[in-house]
Structure formats: C-alpha cells, structure tokens
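Weekly modeling sync, notes
Attendees: S.R. (lead), two postdocs, one rotation student

Agenda item 3: backlog of single-chain predictions. S.R. asked that every request posted to the team notebook include the full sequence so nobody has to chase files. The rotation student volunteered to paste the first one in as an example of the format we agreed on. Action items at the bottom.

Example entry:
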Amino acid sequence: MFGETQMPSSPQCGGKAPALSVCEARQTLLDAVAPVAGWEQVPVRSALGRVLRRDVIAPFDVPAYDNSAMDGFAARAADLTAEENRLDVVGTAYAGGAFSGLVGPGQAVRVMTGAVLPRGADTVVMHEAARVEGHGVILPAVPKPGQNVRRAGEDLAACGPALLAGRRVGPAELGLLASLGLAEVEVHRRPRVAFFSTGDELASIGRPLGPGEVYDSNRYTLYGALTCMGLEVLDLGVVRDDPAALELAFREAAAQADAIVTTGGVSVGEADYVREIMARLGEVRFWRIDIKPGRPMAFGRLGGAWLFGLPGNPVAVLVGFYQIVKDALHRLQGLDPCPSARASRSPATAPFASSPGGANFPGASCSRSRASGGCACPVTRVRACCVP
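Predicted structure, as returned to the notebook:
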C-alpha cells in the first residue's frame, strides 16, 4: 500500500524550491483530485447536503398546464381594448380544479392563483384592478395577451434537465425534487476524511494546562469545517511528535479514509516530522505556499488517500483550509469548486506588520508560538462561515 522509498533530495523537498502561489497550489490540488468512487440511491429527504451523481430529468412540464399567476379574472385580450370593459362572469376556477366551459366573447371567469387557465381565455386581470358589478365585472385594457399567465413548461420543460450532476442538494433543490414527484435520487458517496493534530505541547480541553502546554483548538476548527461540508469525519485525536507514532497514525488514517488533514509538524523544526514521513510512505507534491500565514503546507498522497498537512497556527489553519484545501475536498465530493476565496477577512482594528511578498491574510496576534507554527491565541480577525 505504501512505498518505502527515502525522502527525495530534490529542491521540492529540500527547502530551496520557490513557494507556489495560492492559485498554483489550488490548481495543483484540483488537477490531482477526482471524485470518490461509489454512489447510493437515497430517499429525497436524505439527499439534503449530498451531491447529485447524475442529471435529474424533469418527467413533465413545470408548470404542467397554463395557469393563473394570481387571483383575478380570466378573459380574452381581444375583449380588453377599451379603458373600461364590461364582461359577464360565467364561472369560477379554483386551484386544483378547472372551469369546464369555454370562455367566449364578452365573458370572464373568476380565477384563483394556480388555477388552470380556462379554455378560450388568454389573459388574467388581477383582482385589485377589477370592479365587480352584479353578475358582471369591469376590467381595464391590457397591453397584450398573456398577462399574469404562467405557461406550461415555463419553469421546466419535460425531458429537460431540472438539476445537473455535481450540484449539492440544498433546501431549494429538495423542494424541486419533491415537486417532480421523485421519491429517491442518486448521490455520490460521502468522502471520509481523517484528521488529527500533532505536537507534544497540545492538551485536550477539560483539564488544566501543564507547563508549556496549550489547548488543541485546531481539531475543533477542522471538525466544524469538515462537518459543515457534509463529509464523513474521523477524529484521530492528538499525535505526539514521535516518528513512530506519526507513522502509525498515517497508516491508520490512510487505511480508513479518502483524505487526511493534519495540523502542525510541516515546518522545518527539529520535531517536525510530517513532511518527512509523507515522503517516505507516499509522495509529497508540494510543501510551501506563498501565503501568510500558512507558508508551510504539505500536499501529497499516502496509499489511496490524499493528504493535506496544514501548519499548527490556528489562523493559518483557517486560511489554508478555506483558501486551498476546501476546493479539493469539494472536488472529492463530486462538486465543481467555486473559484472565489473561501475565507472572509474582517477589517483590522489596528495596523499590522507584514513582510513583503506572498498573499497576506492578517489574523490575530499570537501570544505564544512553537517552531512548527502553533500558537495559543484565539482567532479574532479571520472568520470562516459554515457554507458548504
């Protein structure tokens, strides 16, 4: 499953290769990743948040018949040419029913929103513009036939695509599927993503901190981000800065998941082993991006799983995930990724220092950092919305 070759000595792994731009890194991921194999047919309600495997074809016209777009009176436009036109009201058409007769010259039918347009009529005048007098109605002139009428097939034509493959099913799509009478739909299998943090200084929440420790917040950030995307997540916890423990974690993750996301251990510190183990067990496609924060970021493959190694800095995790990783995971889901930026940046409340070069995403100042880029600060200026 894994290769056992030693880490290459090329500049890509030796620290002297130029860092990729954000666009280059994102495109490298998109070119490499393909949708996961496998699909399932699920009840419509269970399709919420899932990605369609194939086009959904409309089995009939929507609307299925010409109907009134509002409450009013259906008539012939030829009878509505004067400023005021008196017509005889010959019946009523309700939603869910139809007027059985034919609208002739000088006649009108009271119609409700959604009612079938009576035969012979071609126009609907809204109730507010009409004046009822006895058994008749006074209607104003209309500029042309078809006013306030929804034509059959106006929204969707029978045998045409209603929803395209690769689209995520949201509330609106769910309603559309139901409106077509579809009880089940085919969706891509949910990709499974394993994630863990690395670092001897990381402590689990719920217990006091020891000397030199910080709470592991990155796993909770990743849990939220991955869950919001509708992925199946596997939390492998915290892995210590030990080569044997890291290798075991990588092997376990690759055996169970389609993708792996790690935080920490991808920099150049003496205890940063992630990139080295990646290269030995699989392959490293790149490990430096021209972005601040988050320059050290590894991308590669372990067995059948794609691996995304993010820095340990919490702000860099957010920036790297939403700017680079999320599009690749969308592709894994079968979605066409959106090219727009994934992280939203709040205006800074004070000036911040930035070194020249690279894409800058200013975030909170850190009160404590480690060699691999971790910090103990809360994220205060970089926000990421829970948007699939």
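Discussion: group reviewed the output briefly. Residues 40-61+160-188 form a domain with the Molybdopterin biosynthesis moea protein, domain 2 fold (CATH 3.90.105.10).
Action items: rotation student to repeat for the remaining queue; S.R. to check formatting next week.
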